[in-house]
Amino acid sequence: MTLRSMLRGAALMVGVAGILGFGVGAAYAADEPTKAEQEQALSNVPAKARAYYDHYWYNAPVGPNPYANWNPPAPPWQFCLNDSMLGTSWRTDLLNELKKLNAQYHAAGLTKEDVLTTDSNNNISVQLTQFNNLSRQGCNVIVSTPSNPTGLCAGMKDAMEHGVLSITVQSPVNCPYAMNVGSNQYYGGRELADWVGKALHGKGNVLILSGVPGISTTIGLEAGSKAALAKYPGIKIVGTVYGFWNEATSKTEMVKWLATHPQKLDGIVSYGDMAVAADEALAQSGRPPVMQADGTNECAYIAYWHEKKLHTLAFLAGGGSNGYEAFYVAMKMLNGAKPMTNMVWFPLPALNDASAEKLYKAWPGITPTSTCWADEPDHHLVADAYINTFFKGGKPIEPKPKP
Amino acid sequence: MSEIAVEETAPAAPAVTPLVAFRGLRRNFGETIALADCSFDIVPGEIHALVGENGSGKSTLIKILSGILAESGGELIWDGKVTRIADPRAAQQAGIATVFQETLVLDQLSVRDNVVLGLDRLFRRVQSTADETRVVREALDTIGMGALDPDMPLGALSLAQRQGVTIARALLRPWRLLVLDESTSALDVDARDRLFEALRRFRGEGRSILFVSHRMDEILDIADRSTVLRSGRSVATVTRADTTTNRLLELMSTHEEAQAAEGAVPTAPQRAVGAAVVTAKSVEIVAGSGPFDLAVRAGEIVGIAGLEGHGQVAFIEAVAGLRNPAQGAVETDRGVVTSFLNAARAGIAYLPRERKTQGIFAPLSVLDNLTISALGRFSRLGLLAEARRRAEGMRLIAQSHVTTPGLAAPVAALSGGNQQKVFLGRLLALTPRVLVLNDPMRGVDLGAKQDIYKILEQFASAGGAVMLLSTELAELCLLCDRVAVFHNRSLFAVIERQALNEQALIAAMFGQTAAARGAG
Amino acid sequence: MNWVRQRLDVIAPFAIAIGLFLITAAVIPGYGNLTSIRSLLLLSSLLGIASAGQTLTIIMGGIDLSVPAVIGLACVAFAVAYGEGVSPWVIGPIVIVAGIVVGAVNGLISRSLRVNSLIVTLATATIIYGAIWAQTKGDNRGSVPDGLTDFVSVIGWTGPIPLPGSVILWGALVLVFVILERRSVLGRWSYASGANPGAAELARIPSLVLWTVVFAISGGLSAVAGILLAGFSSAANPQVGDAYLFTTLSAVVIGGTPIIGGRGSYARTIAGCFIITELTMLLIGLGLDEAAQQVSLGILIIVLVAIYGRETHVRMQI
How far apart are CA A126 and CA A121, in angstroms? Predict the structure, then answer.
C-alpha cells in the first residue's frame, strides 16, 4: 500500500462521511415558537387575518408596528425601488406597477416624478450599498426585494432613524425595521397540496416540484405541503425535485426523475413557473398528464392549461399585483394610518378551472411560452378593505388609486 | 617562460591557519558532476582569485560556501574546524558575505531598504531611519557611491548602481570572508577602483576576499593568489608573483577532456563553401557595446562562443528574429530579419536552448514532434495526409538517427539525447537553409552527441549553413570551420579552423587578443 | 493485463460509464427500458454538444467560461426572434454566427493580449448577460418551433430511428471531432499548444489563428446548445445555460482530459457526459437530493483525477 493509495482511500472516506453528514444536516427547519410566543405574536394581527398566519415562523417573525414613532413626511414623496435582481418579468411588472401608480399621484402633486431604481444582480452587499444610497438621496419610501432576510437590516435601521419608510415585497426581513407585505409560504404550500390531495380523492403518488433547495421560501412551502398531504393516508410523497423556478432546469430534472422512477405518478405539487415544464417532461417520457397544482399565474401556465384542458389550482401572485399592495400600504402610512403589525399578509386569490379560463380570456394572445403574469385587470390581490383592517386612524387616500 | 612556480593543489601547510580550506570538495547533480575535486585554502588577510571558464565549478563552490548548496563529499574547513554550512543564515553567522553574479534587488524598494534587506533582526528595531541612512551612505561610500540618494527606488538606478547596492549590502554585515562572484562586471572603472581600494584596506585589517572575475587585468591587479578550476577540479593555485595571463589561460584549457569528448574524430571535412546566407551588418547587441559584422556562408559551420552573458545568445536570437539588435541589422538574401516569422520565411530554423520548456511536446508522439512545424506540407484543406506524413516521419527518423519504438511513441518516453535528435529533426523537416542552434549538445549523452555531429556535418555538406552556439569548447574545435568569440557584448575575434584550439578560444573569451594570436 | 494497466486512464471513464449504467439498472427497476435509455441519451447529448468546444479549448491550454452565457444568449435570441415571427432558418444561423463571433473575440483577445482565457471568457460572459438584460429588460417573451421541441424530445424520432435529432447530431459531432483531433492540422496544433505553449510559438504554430478558431468553434457549439435548450425548455431564458459551466468542465475532467491541456480527447468527454448524466439519474433514483448529487460529483472528480494523475505520472517517468 503506497502513500498515494492511502491518501486516495482517505479522500474517499472523507467524501462518504460528507454524504452521510449531508443527509443529517439537510433536515433543517425553523424553530417552532412556544404556544405563548405564538399567541403573543399573533395578537398584533387582526383576528380575521390570523388564519393566513399558520406556521408564520417559516417566513419571518411577526411583531408589533415598527413605525410607532414615525411621522409621515409632507408631500411630494419620493418613491424608490431597491431591487435585488430586475432580470425577471415578475420584477419588471413590480417596477412598472410602482411607476404607474407613482405617475397618478405625481399628477396630483403628491409624489416626485420618477421612481428611483437600483438593481444589485442578487449581490446582497451591493444591494445594501444601493439601499443606503437611496435613503441618502432623499427617498421617502423604499420598496425593496431583499435577496437575503438579514442583509439589509443595518440599512433599514438607519433609514428608519432618518424617517424613511422601508417596505419589502414577498421577501420579509428578520428585523423590526421594515413593513413586510406579502403572503405566507407555509399557507400557500398547504393550500396547493391540499387541492392535489382532494383532486386525487385522497389516493395516489405525489411528487413535489420545488424551487431552490435550502432557502426559507422553499422550506416554508414544502413544510406546508407535507403537512397537508399527511392528512391523506392514501397519498404517498414519492419524491422532491428541485427545478430552481426555471423551465429548463425543471424539465431536465423531471426527465431524469421520471427515467429513474417507473412507478405510476398521480399528482404534482409545483411552486410556480415549473408546471408547464413538468407536464412537457411527462409527455416526452411517454407518461399521461397528472393532477398538478402550480403556485402562480404565469401566462404560460394559464395558456397551457387552457390548451390542454387540464384541471388546475393556481394562485394569483404577479409582480404587478404585489406592487399594488405594497404601494397601497405605503400610501396608508403616508396618510397617517398606524399599522398593527410589521407583517401585512394576505391570502393569495386561488384560481380554479373557471377563473383561470376567465383570466385566459382577459389576456388575449398569450401562449404556453409567454413570460408575462396574467394578473387581474385591477391588479388587486385582496380587497383594499382587507388591508385596511391592519391599520388604525389616518386620512383617506385621495385620490383613489386607479387600475 | 621558464620556472613558473606552481603551488600544487595540496600545498604544504601555510604558516598561518587558513580562514577556510577546501579538501577534495565534491558536488554532483544526479549524473552531472559540477565539482569533482576542489582543494585550496584562503588565509586571513588575503585576496584570493578564482578563475575558470563556464561550467568549471566556480558558482557551485560559491553556493556551497554560502550555504545554498550542500557538498556531496569532501571537507570544508572553516577557521580550523570541519564545518557544514547548512543554510545562508549559517554562512552569515560564520561571517561569510556573498555578492552574487545576479543583482538580487527589489525594484520597488528604496536604496536604503535594499541595502539593509535581511538585516532587520540586527538593528531595524534599535536604529532610526536617520541612523540607517548614515550606515547605508557609509557602505555606499566605500565603493564611491556615497552620493546615491538612499530614498531612490532601485528601479530607477543603472545596472552599475544596482550592483553597487548589492555590494554595499554585503559590506554591512560583520564579515570575515567576502565573496565577490563576478560582481565587478557592471561597475564602471571609477567605482571599481574605489572598490579595489576598499578591498585592499579590508585585507590590511586581516579580512579575506574570494574574488571571481573574468577580467584578467583585474585578477593581475588585485589577487594575492589565484586558484584555477577546470571541469570541477582545482588544477593549480598560483601566487601573485607567478601569475601571468598566459599561465592562467593555459591552466584553464582542457586538453585531455577535449579528446574524451571528441571520441571518434571525424576527418576534417572538405565542404564547398558558397555565398553568404546570413550577414550581420554593423550589429550592436546593446547600445554602445560596439558594432560588428559577421557573415555565415552556405556549407559552413560557424561556432559561437563566449563567457556567459557576453552577448552571444542575444546575437543568435537576433539572427533567429527573436529580438532586435540595438543597431544594425541581420540580413539574408531575402531581406532584413525583423521577426521570428520573417526569419523563418528566409529559411532560418532556430533550436532554442531549453528542450523541456521551449522544444519538446512531451505527451505528443514522435511523429507529431517531428512534423508539427511542417504540417502544411502534408495537409489538404486542413486535413492531414497521414501516409505522406508517416513517410516523412520515417525519413526524418533515419536522417536524425533517432532511436524510437515507433512513430506513435510519446516523445517523453525517449532518452534526452533522442528527444534532442527529434527536436533537430523537426527543424530539418522545414528544409531550412540556416540552422541556428543554441547549445544543442547540452545534457546529451555521448552517443547522441556523435549523432548530432553527423547530422550537422551532413547538413553543411549538403550546402546548409550552421550557427552553433556551444558551451563545450572541445565541440567547437571539433566541428567548426571557424568560431566567433564574443566578449563584452560584442564580437571579439573570429578564430579560423587552422588556429582553432581551446586555449585560443578561452583567451578570446577572456578578451585576450595577444593570447589568441599567440596560440595561432 | 499489462495492456489494461497501461491504458487504465483511457479505460477507466468508459468502464465507469458502463458500470454506472449496470448498477443503476440493477438498483432501479424499470431503468433499463427504452424511455429511460432515450432520456439518458438525450440529456447526455445536450451536455455533450455543450462540452465539445470546451474540450478542444482545454486541450489547447485555454478554458471557456463563456459557455453558459453564449447558451443563454442563443436561447433568448432564438426564442424571442422566433416568437416575433422570424423564420428559424434565418435566426438559427444568425445566432450560431453570433456565437462564433463571441468565441473568436475570446480567442483573439486572450492570445493577442496574453491574458488568461479564464479572465477573458469570464468578462465576455458578464458582458453578454448584461447585454441580454439591457436588450430585454428581463421580459423574455418568446417561443420555439414544434420541430425544434421534437428535436430535443425524449420520445422524438429521427426518420426511422427511435432517437431524437439531438442524439443523432451528437453522434455526427463525435465523428467530426475525432477527425478534427486526430487528422487535422488544427487538432495537432491544439495538442502541441496545450502541451507546451512556450515551444508552440518557436515551432511556428500560428497561435493567434489557432486560439481564434478554437474559441470560435467553442462559441458556435455553445450557440447550438443554446438553441437546442430553447427547444427543450420551450422558453427564452438567459439562465438556461447556468448549469453548463460546472457540468461541461466536469465532463471534460471526468473523461480524463487534464485541465492543463495537451492531452485527452473528445471521446473521453463523451464518457464524462454519460457518467455525469448517469450518476445524477442514479442519485435521483435513490431519492438523494440536489446537495448529495453535488457532493457525489465532486468526490467522483477527485477520485478520477487521482487515478489519472497517477497514471500520467508513471507514463512520464519511463
Answer: 8
